[in-house]
TrEMBL record:
This is Transport permease protein. Its main location: membrane. Coiled coil: none annotated. InterPro entries: ABC2_TM, ABC2_TM_bact-type, ABC_2_transport. Belongs to the ABC-2 integral membrane protein family. The chain crosses the membrane at residues 30-55, 67-88, 109-136, 142-172, 179-198, 234-253.
Length: 264
């Protein structure tokens, strides 16, 4: 591990330069530029707010604040977006950079790191604007806001580990990426993001215990909607799973890194 970190540090210029180039290339020749980072999730939030809050009459039990449901929705959609971007990009990162891997000698682990940093930049932009909205609307959760840091750290570690596992497996079995794309859609709707947990039947609520993202999303919603620290004990399984997934992803990557070049 120390040798791996040292090699990444030596190539930090390559990593940071790649993050900057990818961000610039994403919005090159675009009139609105980086504003699309905000518009895409904003459009999704508006649609879901109209459908679930206005048309279907969804409300948060015990919270009649005017922006409560919108904040609940933003907390879920934005947090899920970070997880989805890291895992979706990671599962195809080695295939997308096949030519680079074959032509240049550099630590391959830099590629997943670049994916994570790009996702964090995008997330930072829109979550910063969301935080500004919380402050201006008088809905800022106060000191409980700091509890987001360990919660988001668990999410990122879990996404990195899962993404690396998928990325390596997808090199050898291309169906993995297709399967995960479909799975991610079902996973989204099985996570209480656009609907309150209280609206679910008791039997379905019990099944949410098997969904690691439900605890993370729920913790973010508790912090941002109610201004309370989450129940840390409920996050223990996802914390353990995050560490295990990172360990497994790194082990799989180190064992198969040499073979990936031939497969690509």
């Amino acid at each position: 591990m120390p040798a791996l970190l040292a090699s990444v540090w030596r190539y930090r210029g390559f990593v940071l330069g790649s993050v900057r180039r990818e961000f610039q290339a994403k919005y090159r020749n675009s009139l609105l530029g980086a504003l699309w980072t905000v518009l895409n999730p904003l459009a999704m939030i508006i649609v879901y707010t109209v459908i679930f809050s206005q048309v279907m009459g969804s409300r948060l039990a015990g919270d009649g604040a005017p922006f409560a449901y919108s904040i609940y929705l933003c907390a879920g959609v934005l947090t899920w977006g970070l997880f989805a971007e890291i895992t979706s990009r990671s599962q195809s990162v080695f295939i997308e950079h096949a030519n680079l891997i074959k032509k240049l000698q550099f630590p391959r682990i830099c590629l997943p790191i670049i994916v994570v940093l790009n996702a964090l930049v995008n997330f930072g932009i829109i979550f910063g604007l969301f935080t500004a909205f919380l402050v201006l609307s008088g809905s800022f959760p106060g000191w409980a806001y700091l509890a987001l840091l360990p919660v988001l750290l668990m999410l990122v570690l879990f996404a990195i580990g899962l993404g690396m596992i998928l990325g390596v497996l997808n090199v050898f079995f291309r169906d993995v990426g297709q399967f995960f794309t479909i799975l991610l859609q079902f996973w989204f709707w099985f996570t209480p993001i656009v609907y309150p947990v209280a609206t679910l039947p008791a039997a379905v609520r019990d099944l949410l215990g098997w969904n690691p993202m439900a605890a993370v999303i729920g913790a973010c919603q508790t912090i941002l909607v109610h201004g309370q620290a989450p129940q840390w004990r409920s996050l223990l399984p996802i914390a353990v799973l995050a560490v295990l997934s990172c360990a497994l992803g790194l082990r799989l990557f180190r064992r198969r890194a040499g073979e990936m070049v031939d497969e690509l």
